[in-house]
Write a structure and sequence with these properties.
Layout: H1 2-44, H2 52-64, H3 68-77, H4 82-120, H5 126-142, H6 145-172, H7 176-202, H8 211-220
Helix pairs in contact: 1-4, 1-5, 1-6, 2-3, 4-5, 4-6, 6-7, 7-8
Protein name: DUF6535 domain-containing protein
InterPro entries: DUF6535
Domain DUF6535: 1-173
Length: 221
Amino acid sequence: WEHCVTAVRDFDQDFVGNWRGDMDNVLIFAALFSAIVTAFIIESYQSLSQDPTTQLLSEIVARLNQSSTTSTADNTSFSPDTSSVIINVFWFTSLILSVNTAVMAIVIKQWLLDYTWNISSKPASPQSVLVSRQFRYEGLIKWKLPLMVALVPVLLLTAVLCFFAGLLCLVWTLHATVAAFCTVLVFAALLFLGLTSLFPAIHLDCPYRSPQSWMAYYIKQ
């Protein structure tokens, strides 16, 4: 029984340690990525409302022309252009997904801590330890914790894709040459991600396995 307990604990420490490491990496990347997206949003969200300086100058001109009616019309008729709306939709979505990913990673780390604490912290007979461990492990599988762990990096990748989409929308409104160059780079990154996600679903001996490749495999089935 002691050997069984040792083997089970080693197994649990391995997969729990791997999941914790994955969640730590997600937290670090999500924090850095959220800071980057926030810096872009600080500049982009201003395009959704009228520039106060422009509005003030319009009011001054209107007063000089003694045309308060025109001033009121200008204030109420402002609406952001379509490209600004699309850019902000993508970037705010990216930021929300990134923050949600960090929250999910923190919560999953708490679940894993509770799982290992309940198995290893209480002194008991080997039989009791094995029964308790098996009960909690079956619950872990039943409640789809492996799927939750796999979903976290997929959400973070989705946030990155939304950021790229907003970035391309922005550069296409600024300069066609720069936009074309950026589009090629983004397309190359998406092609790499897509192919490395699809190959393991088609060729079982392909080593490019990842959460998104497993999702592609299950969809294929």
